[in-house]
Amino acid sequence: xxxxxxxxxxxxxxxxxxxxxxxxxxxxxxxxxxxxxxxxxxxxxxxxxxxxxxxxxxxxxxxxxxxxxxxxxxxxxxxxxxxxxxxxxxxxxxxxxxxxxxxxxxxxxxxxxxxxxxxxxxxxxxxxxxxxxxxxxxxxxxxxxxxxxxxxxxxxxxxxxxxxxxxxxxxxxxxxxxxxxxxxxxxxxxxxxxxxxxxxxxxxxxxxxxxxxxxxxxxxxxxxxxxxxxxxxxxxxxxxxxxxxxxxxxxxxxxxxxxxxxxxxxxxxxxxxxxxxxxxxxxxxxxxxxxxxxxxxxxxxxxxxxxxxxxxxxxxxxxxxxxxxxxxxxxxxxxxxxxxxxxxxxxxxxxxxxxxxxxxxxxxxxxxxxxxxxxxxxxxxxxxxxxxxxxxxxxxxxxxxxxxxxxxxxxxxxxxxxxxxxxxxxxxxxxxxxxxxxxxxxxxxxxxxxxxxxxxxxxxxxxxxxxxxxxxxxxxxxxxxxxxxxxxxxxxxxxxxxxxxxxxxxxxxxxxxxxxxxxxxxxxxxxxxxxxxxxxxxxxxxxxxxxxxxxxxxxxxxxxxxxxxxxxxxxxxxxxxxxxxxxxxxxxxxxxxxxxxxxxxxxxxxxxxxxxxxxxxxxxxxxxxxxxxxxxxxxxxxxxxxxxxxxxxxxxxxxxxxxxxxxxxxxxxxxxxxxxxxxxxxxxxxxxxxxxxxxxxxxxxxxxxxxxxxxxxxxxxxxxxxxxxxxxxxxxxxxxxxxxxxxxxxxxxxxxxxxx
Length: 756
Prior knowledge:
This protein has 3 domains: 9-312, Aconitase, domain 3; 334-495, 2-Layer Sandwich (Aconitase, domain 3), CATH 3.30.499; 552-752, Aconitase, domain 4. The protein is built from 24 helices and 30 strands. Helix 1 runs parallel beside helix 11 (284-292), helix 10 runs antiparallel to helix 11 (284-292) and helix 13 (363-378) crosses helix 15.
């Protein structure tokens, strides 16, 4: 099916044509009412009759409806796809240029600089898209997740995206899963996508949001309760009467941040809010088609959930989560975040306030922020800190400009940034005079790890709703509570802000703005893709070597991470984004942010070749050049955060073969397996504490046997040793990835033999 700027209704009807029969099969086989997640998953199974359906145990093969890639991850994904040998992508696929635009001055200037700076990469992505039949959304189009929501997502569909916040599309009832680029290659080459059948966590919502509470507070509360690991291996399914009261874009906000609890994805059942959004965005035909199968686009009565969380929206109060972890929740105001700030010596003066990103940049979000801004302007108030606004898409930007919303925000001092990720993913240029000392920022983004927004360890990032961000920006203080506190106006009067009232959808419809979509040409025969051998931004890939058939013995410990070790710690973003298409160059950041458990230093460890102390990237390079294989050690939820497969490809490229951890984040664990590495979990978590800096690790009895533990051995410098057990999640198919050297090696072999 040809790729266009929106999902054709024919594709949707094709998906719905099999839905009743597939749901019936699953109901018969399971003998119970079904969750919505189960209905969608079974409708996309390669083998609905024969596939095992045991939650949290079975591995299943799926055929998603589409693939979406952002420009930072698309580079490596498409470099891998190019090696597969197929003439075109097997499913509708799109590339979205949103990550490489740095926020510094404002939308127009920043976009122009990005186009010039990244011309080689954009040209590569544009020509690869044209060559292999992909749709291309150029710089300025908007953030991938908002563009997908506006154009491609549909109830009951299934997609994968090379970004951890792909579940944003769950706001329209879609199973949308963030993956690494190798997974995308599987789907684009027409092979089934293999993943463990997820558990299902139910979140039952009752009541109705009101006052200063917003959809953002729902997911902040869920993160508070479940923590950053609580959703691992599960789909979070929102239901109940309160769910139907939340707008489609509000639902998307909630689903987007499901990534912060490690969930496979999150979704809501189809309802009138979704239908209204589909019609408002020019997709009435899809709404009509969904209406005809509505019973299959919601959970059955009595559906079973592995865990149930209940939230009363009537009693929900605004939260602000941070710093350093999205589950670190506080109530707003002096007695909540204010008290925590006093305890931990966090600066109460706010250095910047940011509204937007893929999480909270809808028309509704921005009209609520503008409602507060209008109140402030009427009393002569302006923001008392830097206030930055990031529209989620060109369509959103054009609409808020037409409707005067943009002017309302600018009237209180806001600077509008490009329709791109910007500060949310570290693409934010800030003066050292600000970042050189502890400083506090508040934002409506999703992730708040150290160094996440501006690269500075001194920046303390707090995540909250756009409403609360705007109120705090006007007060200038982290501990401001708009429900009870006032702001002194220039005339000396005390102003208490009224709770915002926004517009769910624009009364005059959406303004599409500038057309930034490029479809692939009908005739692609003359399109060529060039990668210069001297480029420092792009590098063609060589296959990783197959397993040599032996055990991994006496591996040095290159790195043992203390505490949180996210993909930001393993492969930093920010200035390193420019090397996402060049595996060797980006490996210069490997483990640069990891905290060495042995001495507390950041990014520095012991080099066994000469007992010197060096930066981890340099040690990895030296081991690679010397042919030394090595192991990395992680703590809990190792690899949390972004889906970036570079965090798995870099250690593999530098001769890493094993990662041992107390636990893994789902996407990263899969990415490691995709690249031919062996992720193992300590059966006894205390084993982590017994591994010394100069110890060697042996992993015996390879390849891993599904369902069985692995015997490992610690070998100490004094000649003593200790055996321990490690578990793993390898399926039989994933063992084949390991043996072949990577999943891509198997795809390449199948394509070359005509198996695609």
